[in-house]
Amino acid sequence: MNINNDIDEVLCKYLLGKNVLETKIQKMIDAFVKEHNYNPVEHIKSRIKSKESIKNKLISKNLDGTIDNVVNNIKDIIGIRLVCSFLTDIYDIVSLISMIPDINIIEKKDYISNPKSSGYTSYHLIVLVPIVYNGKKDFVKAEIQIRTVAQDFWASLSHKIQYKYEDNIPNNIKEEMYEYSLIVNQLDRKMVNLNKIVNGNK
Q1: Residues in Cβ contact with 111 at an 8 Å cutoff, skipping those fewer than 6 apart
Q2: Domain check: are 112 and 161 in the same one?
Q3: CATH at residue 166
Q4: Distance from C-alpha of 110 to C-alpha of 116, rounded to nearest angstrom
Q5: Which of 15, 135, 143, 195 is 20 to 30 A (C-alpha) from 83?
Q6: CA–CA distance, 180 with 186 (Å, rounded to integer)
């Protein structure tokens, strides 16, 4: 599969979109910290999908390697991950992102209320990010993942296991990971209660 040379120009647009989104999110966080004297975000990670990953995604979707298919069918070329301390922070962040000017949320997936069968939990948003490229206004899609530190640890370990077994994970390992996801969920909820006690809200 060969994606033509236009992919470089498209990726320039997505890189610009990533920079715009990062700046808007950081301003959002700074404003929240100033108002509440509390930072709900432990750390932020971001990336642009590589050409190889884009090609593999198209293959997995049984799509031809065209620019239209890239733009219309791959929603996570831009990836931003916000890692929070507490479950309650996640929903606060979702609410704050929904109020960022010019950022349009087009899809929400709450894998916290409805975990994946693997046990994966996180909150995903697909957003449209405004850019100006060669003097013209355009929009690019981006995926924002919001999760707790504990959820991020589980997801990172799960990713390493999938890579090691090339997605053919033995059933006993799958069962163990699912059990650990339940423990992570329980820990997150206990930490929310502890935070309430510490802050005199219980």
Answers
A1: 120, 121, 122, 123, 124
A2: no
A3: 1.10.287
A4: 10
A5: 15
A6: 10
The answer to whether 133 touches 13, Cβ cutoff 8 Å, is yes
Instruction: Note whether 24 and 119 are same-domain residues.
Output: yes
User: In the numeric block, which tokens belong to residue 41?
Assistant: 């975000």
For residue 60, is pLDDT > 80?
Answer: yes
> What's the structural domain count of the chain?
2
Query: Is residue 1 in a domain?
Result: no
133-191 tens-digit pLDDT: 989 999 999 999 999 999 999 999 999 998 888 778 899 999 999 999 999 999 999 99
Q: Per-residue pLDDT tens for 70-126? A: 999 999 999 999 999 999 999 999 999 999 999 999 999 999 999 999 999 999 999
| Same structural domain, 17 and 114 | yes
User: Residue 42: which CATH number?
Assistant: 3.30.460.10
Q: How many CA atoms lie within 13 A of 42 on its CB side?
A: 15
Quickly tell me which residue has 């799509």 as its tokens: 63
**Residue 140: domain span:** 6-153
- Distance of alpha carbon 101 from alpha carbon 166, whole angstroms: 41
| 105-114, long-range: CB < 8 A, 24+ apart | 106/141, 107/75, 112/87
